Amino acid sequence: MIIVGEKGRVRAEIAAGLVMIHGEVQGNIRAKDRIEAYAPAKICGDLYSPVLVFGEGVGFEGTSHMTGVSEEDNHPKSQAPNSK
Question: Domain range holding 49?
Answer without folding.
Answer: 2-69
